[in-house]
Design brief:
CATH topology of the largest domain: Rossmann fold
Radius of gyration: 19 Å
Strand order of the largest sheet: 2-1-3-6-7
Number of helices: 8
Helix content: 40-55%
Shape: elongated
Length: 226
């Protein structure tokens, strides 16, 4: 997943990039000004743009407008210290998908990126079908070979997270953040991730599902499905 962060506060920008790439889950480019951002958008196709409105040589609104006019399908999240309603409305009307007010927890930004990418991958369709697995994100129903399976909330959230990020290595930390949010920082260990993976794998395989959950030792897990 490739992200472009457009943020002129250098220290904040570097901290965000460091956080987003720490688990090798994202490739994250950085633009500190309007000119660099425009050049990168013209060269590369991004999955997500994180855009600050106030830039030293232009407006983040123009970057959003230009991206949409050029047919970009990237998810766009505005990050701004401006909390006025008119700024939110302007950004969303130009084509942004989300608006996050500074200061914010990096874990919240990460969660919003994941949520946005999941929505884009599903193209608004609540039903996801991968081989013998069927998921309905509205009813939160899961079937394997047309047989319903009962999952806890955490097990369902984990399965949905894995399957919508299929074929990507996902760290244990990222999974933990997805399941418990910013409160992951107060946890003494991430052992609960292994337990959820174990229970999820057991329920799926007992229902006749192939074992798509692969352990990437020392890193995390991958839902390997073609």
């Amino acid at each position: 997943m490739r992200i472009l962060l457009i943020e002129d506060e250098k220290e904040l920008a570097n901290s965000i990039v460091e956080y987003l790439v720490k688990d090798k889950q994202y490739n994250c480019d950085l633009a500190l000004d309007f000119t660099t951002a425009s050049e990168l958008c013209a060269i590369y196709e991004y999955d997500c743009l994180i855009v600050d409105i106030g830039l030293p040589d232009g407006s983040g609104f123009d970057i959003i407008k230009n991206a949409r006019n050029n047919g970009s399908k990237a998810g766009i999240i505005i990050i701004s210290a401006r909390d006025a309603l008119d700024h939110r409305i302007d950004g969303l009307n130009l084509g942004a998908d989300d608006y996050l007010v500074k200061p914010f927890h990096f874990s919240e930004l990460n969660a919003r990126i994941h949520s946005l990418i999941r929505r884009l991958k599903s193209d608004g369709n609540s039903e996801l079908i991968f081989n013998e697995i069927f998921l309905d994100s509205q009813s939160r129903q899961v079937k394997v070979h047309n047989t319903p399976i009962e999952f806890t909330k955490s097990e369902y959230d984990l399965l949905y997270y894995l399957i919508t990020n299929r074929n990507q290595v996902i760290s244990k930390t990222s999974i933990a953040e997805h399941l418990v949010g910013e409160h992951v920082d107060i946890l003494s260990s991430l052992d609960f991730v292994y337990l959820h993976i174990k229970n999820l794998r057991k329920k799926l395989t007992e229902a006749g599902c192939n074992d798509y959950i692969k352990t990437v030792y020392g890193v995390g897990y991958k839902f390997l499905i073609q």
